[in-house]
Amino acid sequence: MFKNVRVFVTGHTGFKGSWLTAWLKSEGAAVTGLALPPEPGSVNLFEAAAIADGMTSVFGDIRDLRLVHETVTRAKPEIIFHLAAQPLVRRSYADPTGTFATNVMGTVNVLEAARHCDSVRAFVCVTTDKVYLDREWPWGYRETDRLGGKDPYSASKACAELVAACYRQTMLGGPGGPRLATVRGGNVIGGGDWSEDRLIPDIVRSIIAGKPVVLRNPDAIRPWQHVLELVHAYLTLGSKLLDGQADIDCAWNFGPAQEGELSVEALLRGFLQAWGTDIPIEIQRSVLPETQVLRLDASQARSLLGWKPRLDARETIALTAHWYRRFHGGDEPRQLVSEAIGSYRRRGCAA
Question: Whole domain around residue 253: which residue ranges?
Answer without folding.
Answer: 6-286+294-349
